Amino acid sequence: MKEFSKILHYARPYTKNIVLAFLCLALTSVITLILPLIVRNMINAVVVQNNVEALNSLTFDLVVIITFQMVFGVTTNYILGFVGNRITADFRMEFFGHIQKLSLSFFHSRRVGEILSRMGNDITVIQKALVTIPVAVFRQTITLLGGLAIIIYLNWKLTGLILLILPPLMLFARVFGKRLKDLSAQVQDRLANATVVLEEMVSSIKVVKSYTREPYEQKRFEEGIEDAFDAEVKKVKISAAFGPFILFLTFLVSTALVWYGGRQVMLGATTPGELAAFFLYAIIIAGPIGTFVRLYTQIQEALGAIRRVYEIMDLKPIVQQPENPVVLDRIEGRIDFDHVTFGYSPERPVIEDVTLSIHPGERVALVGPSGAGKSTLIQLLHRFFDVNQGAIRVDGHDVRELDLTAYLKQVALVPQETHLFGGTVRENILYGKLDATEEELQRAAKTANAEAFIRNLEKGYDTIVGEKGVKLSGGERQRVAIARAMLKDPRILVLDEATSSLDTQSEHLISEALEQLMKGRTTFIIAHRLSTVHNADKIVVLEKGRVVEVGTHTELMEKEGLYYHLYTLRLFDDAPLTLEEET
Ligand SMILES: Nc1ncnc2c1ncn2[C@@H]1O[C@H](COP(=O)(O)OP(=O)(O)OP(=O)(O)O)[C@@H](O)[C@H]1O
Protein backbone atom coordinates (compact mmCIF):
# COMPACT_ATOMS: atom_id res chain seq x y z
CA MET A 1 0.00 0.00 0.00
CA LYS A 2 3.06 2.23 0.40
CA GLU A 3 3.07 2.36 -3.40
CA PHE A 4 -0.46 3.76 -3.51
CA SER A 5 0.33 6.52 -1.06
CA LYS A 6 3.16 7.58 -3.39
CA ILE A 7 0.66 8.14 -6.16
CA LEU A 8 -2.09 9.52 -3.96
CA HIS A 9 -0.17 12.64 -3.01
CA TYR A 10 -0.76 13.75 -6.60
CA ALA A 11 -4.46 13.85 -5.66
CA ARG A 12 -3.93 16.44 -2.92
CA PRO A 13 -4.53 19.53 -5.11
CA TYR A 14 -7.93 18.11 -6.06
CA THR A 15 -9.09 17.26 -2.54
CA LYS A 16 -12.23 19.42 -2.76
CA ASN A 17 -13.36 17.83 -6.03
CA ILE A 18 -12.65 14.36 -4.69
CA VAL A 19 -14.60 14.98 -1.47
CA LEU A 20 -17.57 16.19 -3.54
CA ALA A 21 -17.36 13.14 -5.81
CA PHE A 22 -17.25 10.78 -2.85
CA LEU A 23 -20.17 12.53 -1.23
CA CYS A 24 -22.22 11.96 -4.40
CA LEU A 25 -20.95 8.42 -4.50
CA ALA A 26 -22.06 7.83 -0.93
CA LEU A 27 -25.51 9.23 -1.75
CA THR A 28 -25.79 7.00 -4.84
CA SER A 29 -24.91 3.97 -2.75
CA VAL A 30 -27.39 4.88 -0.02
CA ILE A 31 -30.12 5.30 -2.65
CA THR A 32 -29.26 1.86 -4.03
CA LEU A 33 -29.82 0.53 -0.54
CA ILE A 34 -33.14 2.30 -0.06
CA LEU A 35 -34.64 1.15 -3.38
CA PRO A 36 -35.54 -2.41 -2.35
CA LEU A 37 -37.30 -1.09 0.75
CA ILE A 38 -39.56 1.03 -1.45
CA VAL A 39 -40.09 -1.93 -3.77
CA ARG A 40 -41.01 -4.02 -0.72
CA ASN A 41 -43.61 -1.44 0.33
CA MET A 42 -44.96 -1.24 -3.23
CA ILE A 43 -45.41 -5.03 -3.48
CA ASN A 44 -47.00 -5.15 -0.04
CA ALA A 45 -49.30 -2.24 -1.02
CA VAL A 46 -50.48 -4.32 -3.98
CA VAL A 47 -50.50 -7.88 -2.65
CA VAL A 48 -51.17 -7.42 1.06
CA GLN A 49 -52.97 -4.03 1.45
CA ASN A 50 -54.54 -3.58 -2.03
CA ASN A 51 -54.01 0.21 -1.58
CA VAL A 52 -53.84 2.25 -4.86
CA GLU A 53 -53.03 5.57 -3.21
CA ALA A 54 -50.08 4.13 -1.36
CA LEU A 55 -48.91 2.55 -4.62
CA ASN A 56 -49.12 5.89 -6.50
CA SER A 57 -47.30 7.86 -3.85
CA LEU A 58 -44.56 5.18 -3.56
CA THR A 59 -44.13 5.18 -7.35
CA PHE A 60 -43.66 8.94 -7.28
CA ASP A 61 -41.06 8.63 -4.51
CA LEU A 62 -39.25 5.97 -6.49
CA VAL A 63 -39.04 8.12 -9.63
CA VAL A 64 -37.72 11.11 -7.64
CA ILE A 65 -35.12 8.99 -5.90
CA ILE A 66 -33.82 7.31 -9.04
CA THR A 67 -33.59 10.72 -10.74
CA PHE A 68 -31.37 11.92 -7.89
CA GLN A 69 -29.36 8.76 -8.17
CA MET A 70 -28.74 9.46 -11.84
CA VAL A 71 -27.64 13.07 -11.17
CA PHE A 72 -25.28 11.99 -8.38
CA GLY A 73 -23.94 9.21 -10.60
CA VAL A 74 -23.15 11.58 -13.48
CA THR A 75 -21.44 14.04 -11.09
CA THR A 76 -19.29 11.33 -9.54
CA ASN A 77 -18.27 9.87 -12.88
CA TYR A 78 -17.38 13.26 -14.35
CA ILE A 79 -15.38 14.51 -11.37
CA LEU A 80 -13.48 11.28 -10.90
CA GLY A 81 -12.82 10.91 -14.61
CA PHE A 82 -11.50 14.46 -14.69
CA VAL A 83 -9.34 14.08 -11.58
CA GLY A 84 -8.02 10.67 -12.67
CA ASN A 85 -6.89 12.04 -16.00
CA ARG A 86 -5.50 15.19 -14.35
CA ILE A 87 -3.42 13.17 -11.90
CA THR A 88 -2.10 10.98 -14.70
CA ALA A 89 -1.23 14.03 -16.79
CA ASP A 90 0.60 15.61 -13.82
CA PHE A 91 2.37 12.33 -13.16
CA ARG A 92 3.44 11.93 -16.80
CA MET A 93 4.83 15.47 -16.81
CA GLU A 94 6.74 14.86 -13.61
CA PHE A 95 8.07 11.56 -14.98
CA PHE A 96 9.31 13.36 -18.09
CA GLY A 97 10.94 16.11 -16.00
CA HIS A 98 12.53 13.54 -13.76
CA ILE A 99 14.00 11.54 -16.63
CA GLN A 100 15.51 14.69 -18.10
CA LYS A 101 17.27 15.37 -14.82
CA LEU A 102 18.85 11.94 -14.63
CA SER A 103 22.53 11.65 -15.46
CA LEU A 104 23.73 10.43 -18.81
CA SER A 105 24.71 7.05 -17.37
CA PHE A 106 20.99 6.28 -16.94
CA PHE A 107 20.40 6.74 -20.67
CA HIS A 108 23.39 4.60 -21.47
CA SER A 109 22.03 1.75 -19.39
CA ARG A 110 18.36 1.83 -20.48
CA ARG A 111 16.83 1.32 -23.85
CA VAL A 112 14.58 4.06 -25.12
CA GLY A 113 11.68 1.64 -25.73
CA GLU A 114 11.74 0.57 -22.11
CA ILE A 115 11.37 4.15 -20.92
CA LEU A 116 8.57 4.72 -23.45
CA SER A 117 6.81 1.60 -22.24
CA ARG A 118 6.87 2.73 -18.61
CA MET A 119 5.59 6.12 -19.64
CA GLY A 120 2.84 4.56 -21.78
CA ASN A 121 1.71 1.08 -20.70
CA ASP A 122 2.50 1.22 -17.00
CA ILE A 123 1.11 4.68 -16.41
CA THR A 124 -2.09 3.66 -18.24
CA VAL A 125 -2.51 0.73 -15.85
CA ILE A 126 -2.00 3.12 -12.93
CA GLN A 127 -4.51 5.58 -14.36
CA LYS A 128 -7.21 2.93 -14.63
CA ALA A 129 -6.50 1.75 -11.12
CA LEU A 130 -6.51 5.27 -9.73
CA VAL A 131 -10.10 5.87 -10.66
CA THR A 132 -11.63 2.41 -10.48
CA ILE A 133 -10.09 1.12 -7.27
CA PRO A 134 -10.92 3.87 -4.75
CA VAL A 135 -14.42 4.28 -6.24
CA ALA A 136 -15.13 0.58 -6.19
CA VAL A 137 -13.78 0.09 -2.68
CA PHE A 138 -15.83 2.99 -1.34
CA ARG A 139 -19.05 2.20 -3.17
CA GLN A 140 -18.92 -1.51 -2.51
CA THR A 141 -18.02 -1.10 1.16
CA ILE A 142 -21.08 1.08 1.74
CA THR A 143 -23.29 -1.25 -0.26
CA LEU A 144 -21.96 -4.37 1.40
CA LEU A 145 -22.09 -3.11 4.99
CA GLY A 146 -25.39 -1.26 4.53
CA GLY A 147 -26.93 -4.20 2.65
CA LEU A 148 -25.80 -6.66 5.28
CA ALA A 149 -27.15 -4.53 8.12
CA ILE A 150 -30.53 -4.27 6.41
CA ILE A 151 -30.89 -7.95 5.56
CA ILE A 152 -29.80 -9.03 9.01
CA TYR A 153 -32.50 -6.74 10.32
CA LEU A 154 -35.01 -8.10 7.77
CA ASN A 155 -34.27 -11.78 8.24
CA TRP A 156 -31.09 -13.03 9.85
CA LYS A 157 -31.71 -16.67 8.92
CA LEU A 158 -31.80 -15.90 5.22
CA THR A 159 -28.64 -13.77 5.69
CA GLY A 160 -26.76 -16.84 6.86
CA LEU A 161 -27.55 -18.49 3.53
CA ILE A 162 -26.03 -15.58 1.58
CA LEU A 163 -22.89 -15.53 3.66
CA LEU A 164 -22.18 -19.11 2.58
CA ILE A 165 -20.91 -17.60 -0.64
CA LEU A 166 -17.97 -15.93 1.10
CA PRO A 167 -15.49 -18.71 1.96
CA PRO A 168 -15.22 -20.18 -1.57
CA LEU A 169 -14.81 -16.69 -3.03
CA MET A 170 -12.05 -15.72 -0.66
CA LEU A 171 -10.19 -18.90 -1.39
CA PHE A 172 -10.57 -18.26 -5.11
CA ALA A 173 -9.19 -14.72 -4.76
CA ARG A 174 -6.20 -15.79 -2.74
CA VAL A 175 -5.18 -18.63 -5.03
CA PHE A 176 -5.55 -16.78 -8.29
CA GLY A 177 -4.78 -13.21 -7.20
CA LYS A 178 -1.06 -13.81 -6.82
CA ARG A 179 -0.87 -15.70 -10.09
CA LEU A 180 -2.63 -12.84 -11.88
CA LYS A 181 -0.23 -10.30 -10.43
CA ASP A 182 2.81 -12.26 -11.64
CA LEU A 183 1.29 -12.66 -15.09
CA SER A 184 0.53 -8.98 -15.24
CA ALA A 185 4.16 -8.09 -14.52
CA GLN A 186 5.17 -10.55 -17.26
CA VAL A 187 2.81 -8.92 -19.76
CA GLN A 188 4.20 -5.44 -19.04
CA ASP A 189 7.82 -6.63 -19.30
CA ARG A 190 7.15 -8.34 -22.61
CA LEU A 191 5.26 -5.35 -23.96
CA ALA A 192 8.28 -3.23 -23.03
CA ASN A 193 10.50 -5.58 -25.06
CA ALA A 194 8.25 -5.16 -28.08
CA THR A 195 8.25 -1.37 -27.65
CA VAL A 196 12.05 -1.44 -27.66
CA VAL A 197 12.01 -3.17 -31.06
CA LEU A 198 9.44 -0.71 -32.43
CA GLU A 199 11.45 2.30 -31.29
CA GLU A 200 14.71 0.91 -32.66
CA MET A 201 13.13 0.09 -36.01
CA VAL A 202 11.66 3.58 -36.38
CA SER A 203 14.80 5.42 -35.35
CA SER A 204 17.06 3.24 -37.53
CA ILE A 205 14.69 2.92 -40.46
CA LYS A 206 17.36 3.83 -43.02
CA VAL A 207 19.66 1.06 -41.85
CA VAL A 208 16.74 -1.37 -41.72
CA LYS A 209 15.73 -0.56 -45.29
CA SER A 210 19.21 -0.45 -46.80
CA TYR A 211 20.02 -3.86 -45.32
CA THR A 212 16.48 -5.04 -46.27
CA ARG A 213 16.11 -6.29 -42.73
CA GLU A 214 12.35 -5.67 -42.55
CA PRO A 215 11.56 -9.38 -42.12
CA TYR A 216 14.19 -9.63 -39.38
CA GLU A 217 12.71 -6.67 -37.51
CA GLN A 218 9.20 -8.04 -38.10
CA LYS A 219 10.27 -11.31 -36.54
CA ARG A 220 11.85 -9.58 -33.55
CA PHE A 221 8.70 -7.55 -33.00
CA GLU A 222 6.41 -10.54 -33.49
CA GLU A 223 8.39 -12.53 -30.94
CA GLY A 224 7.92 -9.74 -28.42
CA ILE A 225 4.22 -9.39 -29.12
CA GLU A 226 3.61 -13.16 -29.16
CA ASP A 227 5.39 -13.45 -25.80
CA ALA A 228 3.15 -10.73 -24.39
CA PHE A 229 0.13 -12.44 -25.96
CA ASP A 230 1.01 -15.79 -24.33
CA ALA A 231 1.18 -14.17 -20.91
CA GLU A 232 -2.02 -12.25 -21.67
CA VAL A 233 -3.84 -15.51 -22.58
CA LYS A 234 -2.76 -17.12 -19.32
CA LYS A 235 -4.18 -14.06 -17.57
CA VAL A 236 -7.41 -14.29 -19.55
CA LYS A 237 -7.82 -17.97 -18.59
CA ILE A 238 -7.91 -17.01 -14.95
CA SER A 239 -9.86 -13.78 -15.22
CA ALA A 240 -12.36 -15.40 -17.61
CA ALA A 241 -13.34 -17.79 -14.81
CA PHE A 242 -14.10 -14.95 -12.41
CA GLY A 243 -17.39 -13.62 -13.78
CA PRO A 244 -19.11 -16.94 -14.51
CA PHE A 245 -17.88 -18.47 -11.26
CA ILE A 246 -19.32 -15.62 -9.24
CA LEU A 247 -22.55 -15.74 -11.26
CA PHE A 248 -22.80 -19.47 -10.61
CA LEU A 249 -22.46 -18.98 -6.87
CA THR A 250 -24.96 -16.13 -6.94
CA PHE A 251 -27.57 -18.24 -8.76
CA LEU A 252 -26.94 -21.14 -6.46
CA VAL A 253 -27.55 -19.02 -3.40
CA SER A 254 -30.56 -17.30 -5.06
CA THR A 255 -32.17 -20.65 -5.80
CA ALA A 256 -31.71 -21.64 -2.21
CA LEU A 257 -33.16 -18.28 -1.14
CA VAL A 258 -36.27 -18.63 -3.28
CA TRP A 259 -36.82 -22.16 -2.05
CA TYR A 260 -36.34 -21.35 1.63
CA GLY A 261 -37.96 -17.88 1.48
CA GLY A 262 -40.92 -19.26 -0.53
CA ARG A 263 -41.56 -21.78 2.23
CA GLN A 264 -41.42 -19.00 4.81
CA VAL A 265 -44.05 -16.99 2.87
CA MET A 266 -46.24 -20.11 2.57
CA LEU A 267 -45.94 -20.63 6.31
CA GLY A 268 -46.88 -16.96 6.86
CA ALA A 269 -43.55 -16.26 8.57
CA THR A 270 -42.78 -13.46 6.11
CA THR A 271 -44.57 -11.27 3.51
CA PRO A 272 -44.07 -11.52 -0.32
CA GLY A 273 -42.77 -7.93 -0.35
CA GLU A 274 -40.19 -8.77 2.28
CA LEU A 275 -39.03 -11.81 0.32
CA ALA A 276 -38.71 -9.69 -2.86
CA ALA A 277 -36.77 -6.98 -0.98
CA PHE A 278 -34.56 -9.61 0.52
CA PHE A 279 -33.94 -11.08 -2.89
CA LEU A 280 -32.94 -7.68 -4.28
CA TYR A 281 -30.58 -7.10 -1.35
CA ALA A 282 -29.01 -10.46 -1.95
CA ILE A 283 -28.24 -9.40 -5.50
CA ILE A 284 -27.01 -5.99 -4.34
CA ILE A 285 -24.53 -7.46 -1.88
CA ALA A 286 -23.43 -10.26 -4.17
CA GLY A 287 -22.10 -7.46 -6.40
CA PRO A 288 -19.58 -6.07 -3.88
CA ILE A 289 -18.44 -9.52 -2.85
CA GLY A 290 -17.62 -10.34 -6.46
CA THR A 291 -16.10 -6.94 -7.04
CA PHE A 292 -13.79 -7.26 -4.05
CA VAL A 293 -12.39 -10.46 -5.47
CA ARG A 294 -11.73 -8.76 -8.81
CA LEU A 295 -10.40 -5.65 -7.10
CA TYR A 296 -7.84 -7.67 -5.22
CA THR A 297 -6.23 -8.70 -8.49
CA GLN A 298 -6.56 -5.22 -10.00
CA ILE A 299 -4.81 -3.75 -6.98
CA GLN A 300 -2.00 -6.26 -7.36
CA GLU A 301 -1.66 -5.32 -11.01
CA ALA A 302 -1.55 -1.61 -10.24
CA LEU A 303 0.98 -2.13 -7.47
CA GLY A 304 3.24 -3.88 -9.98
CA ALA A 305 2.93 -0.96 -12.43
CA ILE A 306 3.58 1.64 -9.73
CA ARG A 307 6.65 -0.27 -8.58
CA ARG A 308 7.99 -0.39 -12.14
CA VAL A 309 7.46 3.34 -12.67
CA TYR A 310 8.98 4.20 -9.29
CA GLU A 311 12.03 2.11 -10.09
CA ILE A 312 12.81 5.07 -12.34
CA MET A 313 11.15 7.85 -10.30
CA ASP A 314 13.21 6.94 -7.23
CA LEU A 315 16.53 7.14 -9.07
CA LYS A 316 18.66 10.10 -8.10
CA PRO A 317 20.87 11.80 -10.69
CA ILE A 318 24.47 10.71 -10.12
CA VAL A 319 25.64 14.18 -11.08
CA GLN A 320 24.23 16.40 -8.33
CA GLN A 321 23.89 20.16 -8.19
CA PRO A 322 26.11 21.40 -5.29
CA GLU A 323 24.40 22.72 -2.15
CA ASN A 324 25.95 26.18 -2.36
CA PRO A 325 26.71 26.52 -6.04
CA VAL A 326 29.08 29.13 -7.43
CA VAL A 327 27.28 31.10 -10.13
CA LEU A 328 29.61 32.23 -12.89
CA ASP A 329 27.78 34.98 -14.74
CA ARG A 330 30.36 35.35 -17.44
CA ILE A 331 33.03 32.73 -17.85
CA GLU A 332 36.45 34.01 -18.80
CA GLY A 333 37.35 30.70 -20.35
CA ARG A 334 40.36 29.39 -18.46
CA ILE A 335 40.12 25.63 -18.15
CA ASP A 336 42.33 23.30 -16.16
CA PHE A 337 42.26 19.53 -16.20
CA ASP A 338 44.10 18.60 -13.03
CA HIS A 339 45.21 14.94 -12.88
CA VAL A 340 41.83 13.80 -14.15
CA THR A 341 41.08 10.08 -14.09
CA PHE A 342 37.72 8.66 -15.14
CA GLY A 343 36.14 5.37 -16.20
CA TYR A 344 32.52 4.62 -17.14
CA SER A 345 33.05 1.81 -14.70
CA PRO A 346 35.68 2.99 -12.18
CA GLU A 347 37.74 -0.21 -12.44
CA ARG A 348 38.31 0.42 -16.15
CA PRO A 349 39.60 3.98 -16.57
CA VAL A 350 39.36 5.48 -20.06
CA ILE A 351 40.93 8.81 -19.02
CA GLU A 352 44.07 8.53 -16.93
CA ASP A 353 45.86 11.29 -15.10
CA VAL A 354 45.13 13.99 -17.69
CA THR A 355 46.58 17.40 -16.87
CA LEU A 356 46.01 20.34 -19.24
CA SER A 357 45.87 24.10 -18.93
CA ILE A 358 43.89 26.09 -21.46
CA HIS A 359 43.92 29.88 -21.59
CA PRO A 360 40.81 31.96 -22.27
CA GLY A 361 40.02 32.14 -25.96
CA GLU A 362 42.46 29.36 -26.89
CA ARG A 363 41.69 26.95 -29.66
CA VAL A 364 42.49 23.40 -28.61
CA ALA A 365 42.42 20.46 -31.02
CA LEU A 366 41.99 17.02 -29.48
CA VAL A 367 43.46 14.31 -31.67
CA GLY A 368 44.21 10.66 -31.19
CA PRO A 369 43.25 7.22 -32.41
CA SER A 370 39.67 6.04 -32.16
CA GLY A 371 38.73 5.21 -28.57
CA ALA A 372 41.53 7.37 -27.12
CA GLY A 373 39.05 9.25 -24.93
CA LYS A 374 38.48 12.52 -26.82
CA SER A 375 34.68 12.49 -26.54
CA THR A 376 34.89 11.32 -22.94
CA LEU A 377 37.04 14.31 -22.03
CA ILE A 378 34.40 16.59 -23.54
CA GLN A 379 31.61 14.81 -21.65
CA LEU A 380 33.53 15.41 -18.42
CA LEU A 381 33.88 19.10 -19.31
CA HIS A 382 30.06 19.24 -19.65
CA ARG A 383 29.79 17.47 -16.31
CA PHE A 384 27.68 14.75 -17.91
CA PHE A 385 29.77 12.52 -15.65
CA ASP A 386 31.93 13.33 -12.63
CA VAL A 387 35.63 12.54 -12.60
CA ASN A 388 36.82 9.67 -10.41
CA GLN A 389 40.02 11.46 -9.41
CA GLY A 390 41.46 14.92 -9.91
CA ALA A 391 39.39 17.93 -10.92
CA ILE A 392 38.28 20.03 -13.89
CA ARG A 393 38.37 23.76 -13.13
CA VAL A 394 36.73 26.57 -15.03
CA ASP A 395 38.11 30.01 -14.16
CA GLY A 396 39.67 28.33 -11.12
CA HIS A 397 36.41 26.76 -9.84
CA ASP A 398 35.91 23.01 -9.72
CA VAL A 399 32.99 22.24 -12.08
CA ARG A 400 31.43 20.25 -9.25
CA GLU A 401 31.05 23.50 -7.30
CA LEU A 402 29.40 25.40 -10.14
CA ASP A 403 25.73 26.09 -10.65
CA LEU A 404 25.22 23.59 -13.42
CA THR A 405 22.51 25.49 -15.29
CA ALA A 406 24.39 28.80 -15.24
CA TYR A 407 27.55 26.99 -16.33
CA LEU A 408 26.05 24.96 -19.17
CA LYS A 409 24.27 28.06 -20.46
CA GLN A 410 27.73 29.26 -21.46
CA VAL A 411 28.89 26.02 -23.06
CA ALA A 412 27.80 25.03 -26.56
CA LEU A 413 28.32 21.80 -28.39
CA VAL A 414 28.19 21.43 -32.15
CA PRO A 415 28.07 17.68 -32.45
CA GLN A 416 29.32 15.42 -35.23
CA GLU A 417 25.84 14.21 -36.01
CA THR A 418 23.71 17.33 -36.16
CA HIS A 419 20.57 16.76 -34.11
CA LEU A 420 17.71 18.85 -35.35
CA PHE A 421 14.22 18.63 -33.93
CA GLY A 422 11.25 17.91 -36.17
CA GLY A 423 9.83 21.47 -36.11
CA THR A 424 10.71 24.52 -38.21
CA VAL A 425 14.11 26.00 -39.07
CA ARG A 426 13.22 28.93 -36.80
CA GLU A 427 12.45 26.67 -33.81
CA ASN A 428 15.67 24.79 -34.37
CA ILE A 429 17.82 27.91 -34.34
CA LEU A 430 15.90 29.48 -31.45
CA TYR A 431 16.76 26.40 -29.37
CA GLY A 432 20.02 28.28 -28.71
CA LYS A 433 18.15 31.24 -27.16
CA LEU A 434 14.41 30.86 -26.82
CA ASP A 435 13.70 34.57 -26.40
CA ALA A 436 15.95 35.85 -29.20
CA THR A 437 14.59 38.66 -31.37
CA GLU A 438 13.97 38.22 -35.09
CA GLU A 439 17.02 40.37 -35.72
CA GLU A 440 19.28 38.23 -33.50
CA LEU A 441 17.93 35.12 -35.19
CA GLN A 442 18.69 36.41 -38.67
CA ARG A 443 22.11 37.69 -37.66
CA ALA A 444 23.00 34.27 -36.29
CA ALA A 445 21.78 32.58 -39.47
CA LYS A 446 23.74 35.02 -41.60
CA THR A 447 27.01 34.54 -39.69
CA ALA A 448 26.48 30.78 -39.91
CA ASN A 449 26.20 31.10 -43.71
CA ALA A 450 22.71 29.65 -43.45
CA GLU A 451 20.68 32.73 -44.38
CA ALA A 452 20.83 32.22 -48.16
CA PHE A 453 19.65 28.61 -48.19
CA ILE A 454 16.95 29.29 -45.59
CA ARG A 455 15.54 32.11 -47.73
CA ASN A 456 15.34 29.67 -50.64
CA LEU A 457 13.31 27.14 -48.68
CA GLU A 458 9.61 26.93 -49.44
CA LYS A 459 8.52 28.75 -46.29
CA GLY A 460 11.85 30.28 -45.28
CA TYR A 461 12.42 30.15 -41.53
CA ASP A 462 9.03 28.50 -41.08
CA THR A 463 9.84 25.46 -43.20
CA ILE A 464 9.38 22.18 -41.32
CA VAL A 465 12.69 20.30 -41.38
CA GLY A 466 11.19 16.83 -40.94
CA GLU A 467 12.08 14.19 -38.37
CA LYS A 468 15.61 14.95 -37.13
CA GLY A 469 16.02 17.39 -40.01
CA VAL A 470 15.84 14.85 -42.86
CA LYS A 471 14.58 17.42 -45.34
CA LEU A 472 17.85 19.38 -45.17
CA SER A 473 21.19 18.30 -46.56
CA GLY A 474 23.99 17.32 -44.19
CA GLY A 475 25.78 20.63 -44.75
CA GLU A 476 22.58 22.65 -44.28
CA ARG A 477 21.83 20.84 -41.04
CA GLN A 478 25.30 21.67 -39.79
CA ARG A 479 24.88 25.34 -40.58
CA VAL A 480 21.54 25.43 -38.75
CA ALA A 481 23.34 23.86 -35.79
CA ILE A 482 26.09 26.47 -36.03
CA ALA A 483 23.49 29.26 -36.10
CA ARG A 484 21.91 27.72 -33.02
CA ALA A 485 25.25 27.71 -31.18
CA MET A 486 25.92 31.25 -32.41
CA LEU A 487 22.63 32.43 -30.91
CA LYS A 488 23.53 30.82 -27.60
CA ASP A 489 26.68 32.95 -27.59
CA PRO A 490 28.69 30.54 -25.43
CA ARG A 491 31.98 31.23 -23.66
CA ILE A 492 33.18 27.67 -24.14
CA LEU A 493 32.62 25.97 -27.45
CA VAL A 494 33.02 22.34 -28.38
CA LEU A 495 33.13 21.27 -31.99
CA ASP A 496 32.97 17.61 -32.75
CA GLU A 497 34.02 17.64 -36.36
CA ALA A 498 32.06 15.49 -38.76
CA THR A 499 34.11 12.64 -40.16
CA SER A 500 32.15 12.40 -43.36
CA SER A 501 33.42 14.75 -46.04
CA LEU A 502 31.18 17.35 -47.56
CA ASP A 503 31.64 18.82 -51.02
CA THR A 504 34.18 21.64 -51.31
CA GLN A 505 31.67 24.45 -51.42
CA SER A 506 29.71 23.19 -48.45
CA GLU A 507 32.96 22.56 -46.58
CA HIS A 508 34.04 26.11 -47.27
CA LEU A 509 30.74 27.61 -46.07
CA ILE A 510 30.93 25.58 -42.89
CA SER A 511 34.60 26.38 -42.18
CA GLU A 512 33.85 30.06 -42.62
CA ALA A 513 30.84 29.83 -40.30
CA LEU A 514 32.83 27.94 -37.67
CA GLU A 515 35.64 30.49 -37.90
CA GLN A 516 33.08 33.19 -36.98
CA LEU A 517 31.65 31.05 -34.20
CA MET A 518 35.05 30.37 -32.59
CA LYS A 519 36.07 34.04 -32.37
CA GLY A 520 36.79 35.09 -28.79
CA ARG A 521 35.69 31.78 -27.23
CA THR A 522 37.67 28.98 -25.62
CA THR A 523 37.20 26.23 -28.16
CA PHE A 524 37.77 22.49 -28.09
CA ILE A 525 37.74 20.70 -31.40
CA ILE A 526 37.63 16.96 -31.75
CA ALA A 527 39.61 17.25 -34.92
CA HIS A 528 39.49 15.11 -38.00
CA ARG A 529 40.63 17.71 -40.51
CA LEU A 530 44.05 19.09 -41.09
CA SER A 531 42.89 22.68 -41.55
CA THR A 532 41.45 22.83 -38.02
CA VAL A 533 44.51 21.22 -36.50
CA HIS A 534 46.79 23.65 -38.31
CA ASN A 535 44.97 26.66 -36.98
CA ALA A 536 44.79 25.38 -33.40
CA ASP A 537 46.75 27.15 -30.69
CA LYS A 538 47.33 23.86 -29.00
CA ILE A 539 47.08 20.29 -30.21
CA VAL A 540 46.49 17.70 -27.50
CA VAL A 541 47.33 14.17 -28.58
CA LEU A 542 45.58 11.45 -26.61
CA GLU A 543 46.32 7.77 -26.60
CA LYS A 544 44.57 5.18 -24.43
CA GLY A 545 43.20 7.89 -22.17
CA ARG A 546 46.53 9.64 -21.56
CA VAL A 547 47.90 12.87 -22.96
CA VAL A 548 51.00 11.86 -24.88
CA GLU A 549 51.87 15.11 -26.65
CA VAL A 550 50.88 18.78 -26.49
CA GLY A 551 52.10 21.45 -28.91
CA THR A 552 51.47 23.28 -32.15
CA HIS A 553 51.41 21.51 -35.49
CA THR A 554 55.00 22.49 -36.30
CA GLU A 555 56.30 21.51 -32.86
CA LEU A 556 54.63 18.13 -32.97
CA MET A 557 55.77 17.40 -36.54
CA GLU A 558 59.33 18.09 -35.51
CA LYS A 559 59.00 15.79 -32.56
CA GLU A 560 58.09 12.87 -34.87
CA GLY A 561 55.95 11.24 -32.19
CA LEU A 562 52.36 9.88 -32.33
CA TYR A 563 51.01 13.02 -33.98
CA TYR A 564 53.56 12.77 -36.74
CA HIS A 565 52.60 9.15 -37.31
CA LEU A 566 48.88 9.82 -37.30
CA TYR A 567 49.49 12.62 -39.70
CA THR A 568 51.69 10.75 -42.12
CA LEU A 569 49.45 7.68 -41.94
CA ARG A 570 46.70 9.92 -43.37
CA LEU A 571 44.55 9.50 -40.32
CA PHE A 572 43.24 12.99 -40.90
CA ASP A 573 40.65 12.92 -43.60
CA ASP A 574 42.18 15.57 -45.79
CA ALA A 575 45.80 15.32 -44.62
CA PRO A 576 47.70 14.49 -47.80
CA LEU A 577 45.80 16.86 -50.08
CA THR A 578 45.93 19.94 -47.91
CA LEU A 579 49.53 19.22 -46.99
CA GLU A 580 50.55 19.32 -50.61
CA GLU A 581 48.46 22.37 -51.25
CA GLU A 582 49.91 24.19 -48.33
CA THR A 583 53.56 23.33 -48.91
N1 LIG B 1 28.93 5.10 -22.30
C1 LIG B 1 30.03 4.36 -22.26
N2 LIG B 1 30.10 3.32 -21.43
C2 LIG B 1 31.21 2.55 -21.34
N3 LIG B 1 32.32 2.76 -22.07
C3 LIG B 1 32.33 3.79 -22.94
C4 LIG B 1 31.18 4.65 -23.08
N4 LIG B 1 31.49 5.58 -24.02
C5 LIG B 1 32.75 5.33 -24.43
N5 LIG B 1 33.25 4.26 -23.79
C6 LIG B 1 34.64 3.71 -23.93
O1 LIG B 1 35.54 4.74 -23.55
C7 LIG B 1 36.66 4.74 -24.38
C8 LIG B 1 36.88 6.15 -24.95
O2 LIG B 1 35.80 6.47 -25.80
P1 LIG B 1 35.65 7.88 -26.50
O3 LIG B 1 34.33 7.88 -27.13
O4 LIG B 1 35.95 8.93 -25.49
O5 LIG B 1 36.80 7.83 -27.57
P2 LIG B 1 37.12 8.84 -28.78
O6 LIG B 1 38.56 9.16 -28.65
O7 LIG B 1 36.17 9.96 -28.74
O8 LIG B 1 36.88 7.89 -30.02
P3 LIG B 1 36.33 8.23 -31.51
O9 LIG B 1 37.35 9.08 -32.18
O10 LIG B 1 36.24 6.87 -32.11
O11 LIG B 1 35.01 8.88 -31.35
C9 LIG B 1 36.43 3.70 -25.46
O12 LIG B 1 37.19 2.54 -25.09
C10 LIG B 1 34.95 3.40 -25.37
O13 LIG B 1 34.71 2.05 -25.66
UniProtKB/TrEMBL annotation:
Domain called ABC transmembrane type-1: residue spans: 19-301
Question: CDD domains recorded for this chain?
Answer: ABC_6TM_bac_exporter_ABCB8_10_like
Keyword Metal-binding listed: no
Question: Which Gene3D superfamilies does the record cross-reference, listed alphabetically?
Answer: ABC transporter type 1, transmembrane domain, P-loop containing nucleotide triphosphate hydrolases
Per UniProt, the keywords (alphabetical) are: ATP-binding, Hydrolase, Membrane, Nucleotide-binding, Transmembrane, Transmembrane helix, Transport
Which class of enzymes does this protein belong to? hydrolase
Q: Does the keyword Nucleus apply?
A: no
Q: Name one GO molecular function term.
A: ATP hydrolysis activity
Gene Ontology CC annotations of this record:
plasma membrane
- Coiled coil stretches, renumbered: none
Q: Name one GO biological process term.
A: oligopeptide export from mitochondrion
**The enzyme's E.C. designation:** 3.6.3.-
Give the ABC transporter domain ranges: 335-569
Subcellular location per UniProt equals: Cell membrane
Q: How does it sit in the membrane?
A: Multi-pass membrane protein
Domain of life according to the entry? Bacteria
Give the InterPro entries listed for this entry: AAA+_ATPase (IPR003593), ABC1_TM_dom (IPR011527), ABC1_TM_sf (IPR036640), ABC_transporter-like_ATP-bd (IPR003439), ABC_transporter-like_CS (IPR017871), P-loop_NTPase (IPR027417), Type_1_exporter (IPR039421)
Transmembrane residue ranges: 20-39, 59-83, 129-152, 158-176, 241-260, 275-297
> What's the protein name?
Putative ABC transporter, ATPase and permease component
